[in-house]
Design a protein that fits this description.
With 222 residues, the chain is of the alpha+beta class. It is built from four helices and 14 strands. Strand 3, helix 2 and strand 4 form a beta-alpha-beta unit.
Length: 222
């Protein structure tokens, strides 16, 4: 549903639900949360994020909410394709939109559930909706200044991860290799970081297809 907005009242079940969000739920909201854990193909360091926006007052409120969420990592995020997204629909209405990636493979862990629960309560306290002080913990800010943060597989095959999540990398460093499953004698195709920073995401399953995102690099913010 995340990419089905604004939806259609006469469309598929998913489009109908998106339409209900678009026309009924989102207009009532002041703050919009969005929780993810990598979908089927990615694994992430646990982060909370907001987008850079044309409306700087709206952007400032969103990043203040991210800071209040207090995840281990906080990110200024760029989408490679924002068309039809829940994010875009909410932000176009002027809402404070806070998104997360907490783990990978569409799964959760006890740690990421704790991060999510504490983060939601923190943002509600920050907004004055729930009483109490925000419980802040240490966070590392990351930036995604350009499409150079993304590295993609150019071939189908079996992916070999060369760097672990949360490790720092240098521009040009090999972050993964793709081994052909059809011609095992061929040398693996290297996937290199296009920016220096921290490995914020990696491809999750062992098999990768051409065009799949293999790695995401976040630039460390001092």
């Amino acid at each position: 549903m995340n990419r089905s907005f604004p939806g259609r009242p006469d469309g598929t079940v998913t489009e109908k639900i998106a339409d209900y969000f678009q026309r009924d739920l989102l207009p009532r909201a002041d703050i919009v949360f969005d929780f993810h854990s990598g979908g089927k193909t990615l694994d992430f360091v646990p982060f909370c994020a907001a987008h850079t926006l044309p409306d700087k007052a709206q952007e400032e409120k969103a990043f203040a909410a991210v800071e209040a969420f207090s995840a281990p990592f906080s990110m200024s995020m760029t989408e490679i394709d924002a068309v039809g997204m829940y994010d875009t629909a909410a932000e176009a209405m002027g809402k404070v939109f806070v998104t997360t990636e907490l783990g990978g493979g569409g799964t959760s862990r006890a740690e990421t559930v704790r991060i999510a629960r504490r983060g939601v309560v923190n943002v509600l306290r920050h907004a004055g909706i729930v009483d109490g002080a925000v419980e802040k913990s240490q966070t590392q800010w990351l930036d995604m200044p350009s499409g150079g943060c993304f590295a993609f597989a150019e071939d189908d095959g079996m992916i070999e991860t060369m760097v672990d999540l949360g490790e720092t990398v240098e521009e040009g460093q090999v972050v993964a290799r793709v081994h052909s499953t059809g011609r095992t004698g061929n040398a693996p195709r290297e996937i290199k970081a296009r920016l220096s920073g921290l490995l914020a995401a990696r491809h999750f399953p062992g098999l990768v297809k051409a065009g799949d995102c293999a790695a995401v690099i976040g630039v460390l913010v001092p």
